[in-house]
Amino acid sequence: DFAMEPGRDEKDRRLDEHRVPLDDLNMTTDQGARVDDTDNALRAGTRGPTLMEDFHFREKITRFDHERIPERVVHARGAGAYGIFELYEPLGDLTTAAFLNDTSARTPTFVRFSTVAGSRGSADTVRDVRGFATKFYTTQGNFDIVGNNFPVFFIQDGIKFPDFVHAVKPEPHNEIPQAQSAHDTFWDFVHLQPESLHMVMWLMSDRAIPRSYRMMQGFGVHTFRLVNASGQGTFVKWHWRPVLGTYSLVWDEVLRIQGNDPDYNRRDLWEAIERGAYPEYELCVQLVPESREHDFDFDLLDATKIIPEEEVPLRPIGKMTLNRNPQNFFAETEQVAFHTANVVPGIDFTNDPLLQARNFSYLDTQLLRLAGPNFPQIPINRPIAEVRNDQRDGFHQHLIHGSRTSYAPNSISGGCPAAVDGYRHYQEKVDGSKIRKRSPSFEDHYSQATLFWNSMADWERRHIVAAYLFELGHVERKHIKEAVVDHLGKIHPDLGAQVAQGLGLPAPAGTQVHTKSSPALSMTGQPHSAATR
Ligand code: HEM
């Protein structure tokens, strides 16, 4: 039960020797003094003022006053669970990562599912992206897949993330609407940033209202890299596939569930695990040899694109079983800190500009959210691999280093020399001018949105059109609605025409309403299991 155990160090061992076990369950202060009365503050006379010297009163109130920490700036609402990851076959030809080579290993994991836009107290079953973040506590350190339930993202470059999130979040003057994309700022962003159109198709589909976290896919989204012992890299996309299958709610259910039980998805996950119906997910990979980097009609570094499964099939490599609920929501689910840059030897990044930004952002935000640099020592974040380095001090330092020195190199105590088999970054050749310019290979914003539409059944298309009508129906400014409809017409004439008609707008140029589905456009391949059952 490593993740629940507070850090055991020399001080703990010594304290243990002197520990006075409580022979009853009576209350103590944080300093260990027994409390005689926690219902009545110390006062001067039975009807007199409260006395400052009542340290128990002050401690109790102060601790309460300080209970809140900042919620996550995105993905504030979440639910977590512990699990185990088991590998099907060794992947030594692809990666040196130990947990991807040892089929006998049962690698502990912690997963946090989340919504993105709403605050901590918002409802579960909103139309939104879902986070699917997994921490693998491997023998070589923590490895995180910080993914979503959609395989693509809204933007191509992380420098736009603050703009995007500000547009999605409630409007600044009145904090309305909570966790809905049904407002002007969201659609203003969408029409001005057509790179978001593909992801918005997913958002308007039933994928955005999952029935259960147990029945939801997860995607690492970016192209990452596996590196083997000879230093050879292979591009990889991570996919989680729920063994139960992928299921969604329908909008009418959502509207009722939100009122009946805003904790619907959280409760479902908790109760399933309590009754032993452990959620299972297969980890699958799409592998692309480096020699094929430029073989696609999109850029592998563009996070608004999928690799169609017809072009690169999924290979299942292992299974995760979620088998234990957290004991304390705050200590575990709230304090867990995922980070795309938490990698182990054999797993590396690519130059996807969205990923590069994330590699900066998560640590930065956690330094604020979890009050300083020592949050990796919080039990839920602590690796099972031993941590040893010359970092020191900072708020909430729990480790007591016995050493007299904390620098390297070091001829006094030996210090912590760097390991010869330590993490070695992939030696990618980089050569270019310093410019703020995106590659022309990032320019196509419509083809895969069209691919998504074409892969849908008729009833799924009806749901998508209904979602656009509901969300855009809340937009006040006509020019925004018209501009979005214009983009939709470029994704598919039917989509543009049907949404325009529903909104009482003129059909975008060159489109007309078809009652039957139109034939597929000139796209090859299908999005990954896009159909929702
Ligand atoms: C949180 C996924 C893009 C910044 C999260 C979480 C997930 C996630 C799953 C919640 C983690 C948890 O449960 O604790 C993704 C995916 C992205 C993406 C899949 C695109 C592929 C970005 C970008 C940025 C960003 C581009 C910034 C440049 C953040 C921040 C948090 C967060 C600041 C809060 C983290 C915390 O407080 O611990 N993201 N995100 N994300 N994300 Fe992202």
Task: Note the topology.
Elements: H1 10-18, H2 55-65, E1 78-87, E2 106-115, E3 130-138, E4 141-148, H3 161-168, H4 184-192, H5 197-204, E5 218-219, E6 224-227, E7 233-242, H6 251-260, H7 264-274, E8 280-289, E9 315-324, H8 329-334, E10 347-348, H9 353-369, H10 447-454, H11 458-473, H12 478-491, H13 493-503
Antiparallel strand pairs: 1-2, 1-9, 2-3, 3-4, 5-7, 6-7, 6-10, 7-8, 8-9
Would you give an account of this structure?
The chain is 26% helix and 14% strand. It has 13 helices and ten strands. It has helices at 10-18, 55-65, 161-168, 184-192, 197-204, 251-260, 264-274, 329-334, 353-369, 447-454, 458-473, 478-491, 493-503; strands spanning 78-87, 106-115, 130-138, 141-148, 218-219, 224-227, 233-242, 280-289, 315-324, 347-348. Strands 1, 2, 3, 4, 5, 6, 7, 8, 9 and 10 form a ten-stranded antiparallel β-sheet that branches. A hairpin with a 2-residue loop joins strand 3 (130-138) and strand 4. Helix 12 (478-491) packs antiparallel against helix 13. The two termini are 38 Å apart. Mean pLDDT is 93; it is low at 1-6 and 515-533. Belongs to the catalase family. HPII subfamily.
The description of the largest β-sheet is: 10 strands, antiparallel
Give every kind of bound small molecule, once each. protoporphyrin IX containing FE
Tell me the fraction of residues in β-strands, as a range.
5-15%
Instruction: Report how far the terminal alpha carbons are from each other.
Output: 38 Å
The rough form would be described as globular
Return the structural class. Answer: alpha+beta
Classify the helix fraction into a percent range: 25-40%
Number of discrete helical segments: 13
H-E order: HHEEEEHHHEEEHHEEHEHHHHH
Radius of gyration from CA coordinates: 26 Å
Poorly predicted runs are: 1-6, 515-533
Summarize model confidence as the mean pLDDT: 93
Please count the beta strands (DSSP E, at least 2 residues each).
10
Family: Belongs to the catalase family. HPII subfamily.
Cofactor: heme
Active site: 75, 148
Protein name: Catalase
